[in-house]
Records
---
Amino acid sequence: MKILKLFVVSIFIVVFFVAFILYFQEKEQKIKISEIPKKIVKVVNEKVPGGKITEAEKEMDKGKVVYDIDVVKGNKRYEVEVYEDGTIKEFKALGEEEEEEMEGEIEYNFDKEKPHTIPSGWKNEFTGRGKLGKWEILEDETAPSKPNVLAQTSMENFGYHFNLAILENSSYKDLELSVKFKGVKGNEDRGGGPVWRYIDRNNYYIARANPLENNFRVYKVVNGNRRQMDSKSLKVTSNEWHTIKIRMVGDKIECYYDGVKYLEVKDSTFKKAGKIGLWTKADAYTYFDDLEVEEIK
């Protein structure tokens, strides 16, 4: 009798355990955009040409893996559900939405943008003297994600002049921000880097690498005045792709160049969320690609 009871209890435990596993397999699991398989990204891009993936979830449906992808194109939102083999399960147009601030995780590779224009949602600005630079989409066969890059191509400004490309509806406080750049040319200056906690064209943080000076620096621009906070001398090559990554939580700023942390400072000048963007100085002719930002909560 005891053996029978033990057998029944064992069966009950096994059934409960299997049901428990199946329950959690069926639940949606949020994943990073970078974790979406290339096959799925291709299907989504073909379904919504020119759209930008904003969120992704992975779930099980009757034993099959399904990717639930949210896409924004202009002011319209779409949901694309795709099986692991690339078959579309469901496609829904979710209608129009207001111009909301961008938060969470964003990736830009600029490959769906129109050549020789600044991408939709980006604004051309500058700090200092002179006139607006020129930000435009160009093709580059060396781009980390082919074919396009976002380039600052004006070489007409000199001296105290900072070119800015700002992602208008972005809003981040604590974040991890990275971008790949290639310093193509420039006699007075070369290279560039990312901007964050941008309040306006005269107030923001910026980290940049300069092939002419062979250094990596982090600054804050306050009321139009640039103030250096930390610097590291290192080899920065022209016409080669490099990566700058920023991590800021609270007042702590960490700056990485090609995967190595070189700079670390604390500063509380800009305490609130701000926009993100890209920066070059004077006549720096610079390419950018694979901009990624993730909110840290």
---
Amino acid sequence: MKRTAAAIACSILAGCGKVASPALPPDAGPSQPTVEDVDPAPGAIAASARFTVRFSAAMDEGQLLAPSGRSESVVLAAEADVERAAAAIEHAPLSAHERTLLVPAEAGVASDRRSILLAPDSPLLPGEYYLLVSPRLKDEQGRRLAGNGARFAFHVAPPPPAARLLTPAAGGEVPWNVAVVRAFAERGRIALLGPHGEELVSAEAHGPVALPLVAPLSAGAEYSLALDSAAAPGQAFTAAPPPSCSTGRRRSSSPSRTLAAPPSPRRPGSSALRRRVGRRASPAVARCGSRGCAPPPTTRCS
């Protein structure tokens, strides 16, 4: 009886001492690579943003870059195309149609192959975008990326409204007595500011706006636009001075001459007198004829 109990106890202790063999991880190696960081952080970004994805291990460069030199495993897609793009990058290579779902971007892999940079070919339009990481990526040891890929959301805000001059042009010069200034803004309250920053006239903008002036501008002063009380950079013009004015008759630079009176009407027996008068007459009379010469014009100010 004692021997039986001892045998049972030894069997139990032997069973407790056994260690179960661990389950093999996907592919090779004890741990899977992960996405460590994304720059910029998800959220609002500038239209000129460039994207960097960092991994916890050196990745297979052949999967990060396609033969074209661009990436078909780490991509950027607009919100309208994100689901189809995510399904497309699960396999390789992409078809020509599937590539149209991606935002065109240059790709560059770091020398340690632990990060990839995406630089869109052109500034992003306002809207929602997603940075996608394919689940088929592996590291240099053949270990598949942990999880089912990755997705990061970004938002490009529309540019703030801006005001600009239509007539006169920015940086130009206008007559001091101009009656209307024309400007443009998509929205907001647009105003014309005087030389000291005072508001002269304003209007609500929904496109082109006419700003009528009720008084002449100050000659030589600068006037500028503002939108919603904020100055519009570079949108200014200058009022030209009024034209100079001189009065009186212009003087001739030639020596003065006394013009003889035209001959009197013909009378009988006056032929000798006419010959004497004709000899004494100056050349100016001969040129002017019997009508005489008109005085030079007088300059007047309008």
---
Amino acid sequence: MASPSAFAAVAAAVVMMAAAAAALCFSAAAAASPVGGPHMADLSVLLPPRMTKPVEHRLIGFDGCFTWAWDHHDIISVKPEYNDSSRCSTSARLASIAPYSGRKETSVYATDIISGITIHCKVFVDRISRIRIFHHAVKIDLDEVATLRVHAFDDEDNVFSSLVGLQFLWQLTPRWVDTNSHHLVHIPLKETHLSDCSGFCGDMNIRFELEDRNLGSDLFVVKGIEIGQEVVNAQLFEPQFEHVNDTITLTVAEAMSLEPPSPVLVTVGAMVKFKLKVFRQKVPQLLTYHHSIIIGM
């Protein structure tokens, strides 16, 4: 029969093993969790090759102060961005600098100067196969401002992370060929809310420069000026890519609402009077005519 001291030794060993296992599980969970230490917003990035200008993308790191390194300096470049007050880098400008010669793969490394932890982001470079114009809706209100954005895809329908620096040609055409009256008008980026970039204006400055040269970028801002439909066309204006384009049709309609708002609960035989309210120049206006509905069985 084992002595009490032997039982105590076995119990102590079991407790130590359990504690070690718990510590191992905790450290593994912390390593797997992106909030457990330094991490990047992007695990991978897809960029087109250099065309007229390098294509740029902003890499953002969190929970650290980083130094940056990368493989294949002939494919990409990385320029750290610094906080003016602390000289701490939490982001960097990544640029695709090589012309197309087949799909490429490389990596960017960010090392936290405090913990010594190194995180990395894979970077793929490939050619654009097609583009699409995106907006959250195909209908916009009269006097409403809408931002259209070009998304690009490779041969496998992977979405490119950035198109900043690429040249586009945008065109507005009335839907009906028998009218020359436009329903949309282009608003320069500098005259929109997009010019407020909170100190990190690298992407927007590149887009501003393109518009200053009477070219377009991957962003295009329009405003509804007349009720009707307008065809919007975007063409990638880069050597050997002029055939890559996309078209959408936007409908401009007057913003309106009814008073009283729904739902309206009434009894049978009741008469409900509705008022039509429209919004012009962002100011609600009540129309002079009313409409009544009698609720039947």
---
Amino acid sequence: MHRPILLVVDDEPFNLEIICEYLEEIDCEIDTAVDGEQAWAKLQSAPGRYDLVVLDRMMPRMDGMQVLANIKGDPLLKALPVIMQTAAAAKEQVLDGLRLGAYYYLTKPFESDVLLTVIRTALNDRMSQLAVIQQMEEQKAMLDLLCEGTFQLRTLAEARRLAASLANICPNSSIVALGLAELLVNAIEHGNLGIGYEEKSTLMSTGNWAREVEQRLEHPDYHHKVVSVRFHRMPDQIQLHITDQGEGFEWQRFTELDPTRAFDSHGRGIALARQLSFQKLEYLGKGNEVVATLLLS
């Protein structure tokens, strides 16, 4: 298995030492940078090297917000998760970081278990992303001629495989794959399996989310439920229509990045898919249908 590599950026040597000490509990390789310019130079020189950036906001020379903007503006680095860690905790400051694409916003001082929970969650997401991208590379030739098709899936593994396959025939395929996987996983876990927001928060904090999903997939109440995906390629756009068999949800709360959820371990996937992966994302009715649109021109 790929051993993750983290880049920790902070201009205070004591903070770097403490964070690196916390990270000894995670099986990972750690690299450090003492300011934004050094961090950006390392990221540019090896854009595929790092799996996660822990980034201080307030630094000399180049601050963390500029580094974050550079990362999210670079096609080779755009999908890299960034955890901002800072004493700047005002609502607008948090929202600024989330709007730029920060995976999580951690305010100082923080406890080690909070940092480790966030990093483990981010790395799990990152490993899933890398698996999707690898599948894309293996499957690209399969669907090049597809104009229209309907697919059904039930499990998280099927969701990620389908996301990889369909993204291969879309522009900006790696970014589309991440957003599409997010929508499909959401349709399974929240839609078909009925795992609510607060319940997922508890499961994530205790490390039981994946096990609970697998158990529900085999439960008689959920075993028969599927997610349907309709792919339609037109001359000027691609539409992906996703339908689950759940009761729907209050999707309006999740299409924008909300600073009140900035410190939760999840809940940003739909907003990030809308922001990064698709030109249009429209939920229908009670929320168990979503149409994602990609423009081709």
